[in-house]
Structures are given as C-alpha cells and as structure tokens.
TrEMBL record:
The DHHC domain is required for palmitoyltransferase activity. InterPro entries: Palmitoyltrfase_DHHC (IPR001594), PFA4/ZDH16/20/ERF2-like (IPR039859). Residues 113-127 have a biased composition (Acidic residues). Residues 379-391 have a biased composition (Basic and acidic residues). This is S-acyltransferase.
Amino acid sequence: MLTTMGEPEPGRRRLYQVWKGSNKFLCGGRLIFGPDAGSLFLSTVLIASPLVGLCFQCVTKLNYSGSSEKQALGMPALVATILLGLADLAFLFLTSSRDPGIVPRNARSPERGDDDPAAAAATEDDVATPSTEWVMSAANPHLRLPRTRDVAVAGGHVVRVKYCDTCLLYRPPRASHCSICNNCVQKFDHHCPWVGQCIGLRNYRFFFLFISTSTFLCLYVFVLSWLNIAAQRGSHGGSLLRSMTGEPLSLVLIVYTFVSAWFVGGLTVFHTYLMSTNQTTYENFRYRYDKKENPYDRGVPANISEVFCTGMPPSMNRFRAWVELPEPPEAFDGGPLASRNKIDLLGPDEKADLEMGRHHHPGGVPAILQGLHYAEMEKNSASVHVKDRQSAEAPDPFMIPEAPRHDGEVE
C-alpha cells in the first residue's frame, strides 16, 4: 500500500528491502542476484569476445570474397554464431537473476507446539542424543532442540537433516546453507562464482544449459577457425603454416577456445554424470553415494526427466510482499524522576515558558547555572590544591621524634 505521494507507509517495507541474506535485488525485487554479481559482467565479456571475433571474420569474408560459395558458407555461419551467442547469454542471465530455491528463514527458533515436529519431540528429558548435539532455544531456555533429525523421503529412505543456526530452521532434505549468499537453498549444488549466484533447485536447469551451450560454442568457434585457415591454403601455396600466420585472428580464437573447452567441457561432463545419477556437487563431495545407495537415484531416464521435464517449483519467498517492520525499543530517559529533576533546575521564567508551551533557553543553560563566575571558581580550585600540597609536606604535630641511638646501646 502506498501513500498519496507514492511512498510506502511508515513501518512497512517490501520483503526484499529487509532481507537478511547477502543478495542484491533489482527491478523492485523481481531480479535476484548473488553478492558477487559483478562477476556476471566478466563472464559476459569472456563469452562475447570470441563471438565478436568470429562474426568480424564472417563479415570480412562476405564483403571481400568474390567466391559465391564462400559467401553462402559465411552467411549461415554468421547467423548461427549470433543465435548461439544470444542463447548462451540468455541462459547465463536466467541462471544468475532468479531465485535458486531460497528457504524462508524464521524470525525465532521453533518451539514446542510449532509446526516443526522435531521441536515438539525434543525436550530436556531426551537423553538419546549427546549434549553436544543439542541446540538451546533462545526463546525458551528450558527447551532443547536436536542438532539433527531423521526424515523420510520418497522410496521409504530415511535421511538426516541438520538444524541451521542462521536461518533458525531444520533444512529440507538436500538443502544446505551458502555462506556467501547467507541463505539456505533447496537442492543446493554449489555457489558458482562465474554466474555470481547459488545453483539450486530452481536454476540448475538453466545452469546446465548454460555450460553445455558454452561448450558447444567453444567447439563451434574452434572448428570454424580451423576451416577458415584451411580455406586459405590455396592462396598461400598450400602451406598450412603460412595460412596460420596469414589469419592471426583465427589463430587466437583457436587457442582461446581450446583452453576454454577444457574448462567448460569438463564441467559439462561432470554435471552430466551428476544429473544422470541424481546427485548434486555438494552431495558428491560430501556423502560419496558410490559407496552406499543413493536414496534419490531413480534411473538415468527418470533422473534426466526430473531436471528438464518437471514443472518449475514456485519460489518459497514473496520478495515483493509487504512486511511490517519491528518497532524499535523505546529509549530509557530516566522516568518521571529524571524529568522532575530537570524541571527543578529551571528558573521561574523557564518554568512559565514551559507551561505556556514556549521555548526559553538563553545560551542553552538553565537559570540556576547562569551568572556563575567560572574564572573565580577555577582560581579557588587552584588555591585549594596548593593548600593540600603544603599541608601534605608540613610535619605532623602529633609525631614524637625518635631519639638518636649510640653504639653499644641496647633497647
């Protein structure tokens, strides 16, 4: 709700404005980025640079080549490069700017009788869990919550979930807390510095499309650059080396895409394996499902279908919803006694002005403190210090002097 001037009502803000995580919000909370969203610009430059170079080569060949065959080959390559580049940048933006599956945090820890069944089951009388694995409730010191608890997932498997001290909740299965974004994320995979965002339940699909498209683009530019060099062998006497020196831009693109393909290509292969086995990067490094049964593995076709063919779950947070701000604590002013003491320091004129609602503060000093001779007070204070020092040095009249002793005398 807005006021007549278009400003929010006092005491009300949108959720994204008071969000305790480290995310950055744009467009009124519609776009959600991580705290390191600046790396998105670097990733865009790394993707666009080889594409601009390849497009420049295609345009150059189209304008200066007299061969109709080369013109026919150049135009499809130019169009395909532009479309693939736009698709790759779109997947990058969709990965970086959407809610990855942030779990709403609680304002207080769960208590007995709350919706959390673990809180209702955990009491001080429980002795099955060691004391080091219990969490004390801030609102109720007599209530202890277990650090972990077991929950059942699909297929009858039982998995262990952990209590998050930051978000004050038991994390859903496969969720984890990201220390960079300061949020618990559903089906947490990892925090990707290249996209500046967590990879989780709601953006993993676009992340995989982004890295796979980037891999294909690297191979595409690599192959076209080699074909361009090979096509110039006829004009260089059939020498491949002369063709490479005659096409320096193609040579740079070959080296650049070769190095990049190893990075994004290896990442694509790794996530293809994770997707086919229904694992996340976090689970693969932490739990090692190859040594035990994976409770989420339903077979390769079903695992791949879960990523690409299932509906996108809605966000658990309404970041544009209005929320009430907590009232700030009232400052303690000393109570009525302090106010009465302040009034007693006022003179008759100030008291009359206070009763009439006027302000009377000559020099900002009450009447009882006005007219004092501060120079005379400092002079008297100095004389008192001198007298104290002289009295300290004077002999004590009640002290009896001790008679001098001679050799051989005994007390």
